[in-house]
Amino acid sequence: MMQSVLLDKVQHNLSRFDCGVAPLNNYLRLLAGQQARKDNSRTFVLEDRTQPAHIAGFYTLTMTPVDLAAMPATLQKKHQTSTSAGLIARLAVDQRYQGQRLGEWLLVDAMQKLLQASDSVGFPLVVVDAKDGAGLFYQKYGFTSFADSPNKLFITIANIRASFT
Ligand SMILES: CC(C)(COP(=O)(O)OP(=O)(O)OC[C@H]1O[C@@H](n2cnc3c(N)ncnc32)[C@H](O)[C@@H]1OP(=O)(O)O)[C@@H](O)C(=O)NCCC(=O)NCCS
Q: Domain ranges in the chain?
């Protein structure tokens, strides 16, 4: 069974990770652990099956303000009292593991975690920051681009819930 675990800089080899995008590599190596210690975000990793110190992929979750103005009118009206959305702030797969559906697995895992969080805290949307044209990757899984920024996409919690039940 595949399972994500919290990043642990003692157990995990951070310097080995290479998704091909330097800012994402650097975030994992230098910032992810520190941000988690401060409770600013959480980073989950998928370990290599046979070598758990090797990170196959990771994602980082936190919250972000809702940009209602850049959303379709029906959603603006429905969610006008809400202020925060769940944020998939980073998501990447090491180049040695790309093309094996691990990005898909990580995205589903991240959405399940956010759905579960929304069951107790209550927020209506999930937002993702897509770097380097990866917006198309997220669109495959039901995300819609914000009107003012194609690299920022959203999906409703209601959509996520419907796709998992
Ligand atoms: C984008 C990324 C997360 C995808 O992970 P992956 O494990 O290689 O992808 P998967 O094997 O799970 O692919 C699942 C599907 O998404 C598609 N896909 C993969 N990367 C894509 C991209 N950049 N754009 C559009 N579609 C993409 C695959 O072709 C596959 O499609 P299919 O269902 O038609 O077969 C990974 O390639 C990566 O980390 N890239 C570098 C960093 C990056 O751009 N991260 C995302 C922005 S923060």
A: 4-164
Residue nearest to atom 4 of ligand 1 (CA): 103
Tokens at residue 97, please? 């593991």
Tokens encoding 42:
């959480």
Which residue has the least CA distance to atom 24 on ligand 1? 137
CATH code of domain 4-164: 3.40.630.30
pLDDT tens per residue across span 100-155 = 999 999 999 999 999 999 999 999 999 999 987 799 999 999 999 998 888 999 99
Q: Residue 98: helix, strand or coil by DSSP?
A: coil
Distance 138 CA to ligand 1 centre (A): 8
What's the 140 CA to ligand 1 centre distance in angstroms? 10
pTM of the model: 0.96
What is the b/e burial string over 118-142, where b = at least 16 CB atoms within 10 angstroms of the residue's CB?
beeeebbbbbbbbeeebbebbeebe
Residue 143 sits at the vertex; the CA angle it makes with 137 and 147, to the nearest 5 degrees, is: 110
